[in-house]
Design goal:
This protein has about 400 residues and is of the alpha+beta class. It contains 13 helices and 16 strands.
């Protein structure tokens, strides 16, 4: 879709250019002192890119810099993409949000809920409520992530092979069936807990559409939007654009994570909740489609009413994640933040204690990436980097401060 670049004078869209430069001034030291290997920041308003900056290295060993076309593992920023895919099928009448997931994935019938006991011999009871499609979209199904190390159910997941990966030898259908055999953390719909729900949703997309998840995303989202660099793996022709992955060492400086060339192989399990690689240009196009109510450059994926519906709070009683959610590791506060169909949604900026707008929707990825769309201000932001885990540094709150303080109209 052409070279990624600033497309306007920031003042034309209500930004102060000098104040936008505070983004670079703040995040450059993260690289200089070794906390991050490198990063890319993109800010747009009213469809125009007002700020684009890069700093540091996509690979510390070679010294190759982060560039505007660098490819990053976006991990959970895959979740909004899979949620959009599901809602495209919803718009075609393929299912209702209240449908039991077992209608499409039979193994999800007769689910059980953890009551007490140790992971090796848990006591469970039959679930009174079926897991429904809206539970998957809102993370209220009672599913978990094994790596969270909070509950006994997390440990049960780890013992079953779900730590930071999936059991060997299974494809997505097999993984989802295996998940269905594990107990739920709570009664579906009764609480919020960040989980593998979007991976299950990806399998539902496969069943309903009759296509593998990667094919559906290519045919229905990435191709139409011109997201030519987004997918579950890359070809070797783009190897030199790929950002290496890092984690903090004992001294706090970034040290490499050995991915053993995983980015060049189609994964055995197509995880709609965590598996995508993308670029700033591609994800920017995805955010613009959302900002414009489901359409970009004459291509419509969703109706404006559907996007508005997805990006309102769906937690019962209009609760926020602080009151309705289970405590899990997180870089940002859950106060004043609800959850829609695939996105966190800011309800009360004062309660979040971060400069933001009511109605902003967002999510981030495990390697410290983040995006948000602010319909009130017509602003989108994408921040890409490569450090696991995302809770290491206060990137997301600081970025919101720095972007929003630069708005002057």
């Amino acid at each position: 879709m052409g070279e990624l670049k600033v497309t306007c004078d920031p003042a034309e869209v209500g930004f102060d250019a000098g104040r936008l430069r505070r983004i670079e001034a703040h995040f450059a030291p993260y690289v200089d002192d070794g906390r991050l290997p490198g990063w890319l920041a993109l800010v747009s308003r009213r469809g125009e890119i007002a700020h684009l900056s890069t700093y540091g290295s996509r690979d510390l060993a070679s010294g190759a810099p982060v560039e505007t076309d660098t490819l990053f593992r976006i991990y959970s920023m895959s979740k909004p993409v899979t949620s959009v895919a599901a809602m495209m099928l919803y718009e075609e009448g393929a299912f209702e949000l209240t449908d039991p997931v077992s209608r499409f994935i039979p193994s999800f019938a007769d689910m059980r809920v953890y009551e007490q006991g140790i992971a090796a011999s848990p006591i469970t009871r039959p679930a009174a409520e079926p897991v429904r499609v809206w539970h998957l979209l809102t993370h209220t199904a009672g599913l978990v992530y094994g790596f969270q190390h909070v509950s006994v159910v997390d440990e049960i997941y780890r013992n079953a092979g779900f730590d930071r990966g999936t059991p060997r030898g299974l494809d997505l259908a097999g993984v989802v069936d295996r998940l269905a055999g594990l107990p739920l953390l709570f009664e579906p719909g009764s609480q919020w807990n960040y989980s593998v729900a979007t991976d299950v949703l990806g399998r539902l997309v496969e069943v309903v559409s009759g296509q593998p998840l990667d094919r559906f995303l290519d045919d229905r989202i990435f191709g139409p939007l011109g997201m030519t660099d987004t997918g579950f793996f890359i070809d070797e022709d783009r190897a030199d654009r790929m950002a290496s992955l890092y984690t903090p060492g004992p001294d706090g400086r970034a040290v490499p994570v050995d991915m053993r060339g995983a980015e060049f192989r189609k994964p055995r399990v197509l995880l709609g909740g965590a598996g995508l690689i993308s670029s700033a240009a591609d994800y920017h196009r995805f955010t613009q489609m959302l900002l414009r109510g489901g359409e970009l450059d004459g291509v419509r994926l969703l109706s404006p009413r559907t996007v508005a519906y997805m990006t309102r709070n769906h937690l019962p009683g209009d609760a926020d994640l602080e009151d309705f959610g289970r405590p899990v590791f997180a870089e940002v506060s859950y106060g004043g933040v609800g959850f829609g169909l695939g996105f966190a949604v800011v309800q009360d900026p004062a309660k979040t204690k971060t400069l933001s707008s009511a109605g902003e929707f967002n999510w981030g990825g495990a390697a410290s990436t983040v995006f948000w769309v602010d319909p009130a201000e017509q602003v989108t932001a994408v921040f890409l980097t490569q450090l696991l885990p995302s809770s290491t540094h206060p990137i997301r709150t600081r970025l919101r401060q720095l972007v929003n303080q630069a708005l002057i109209d």
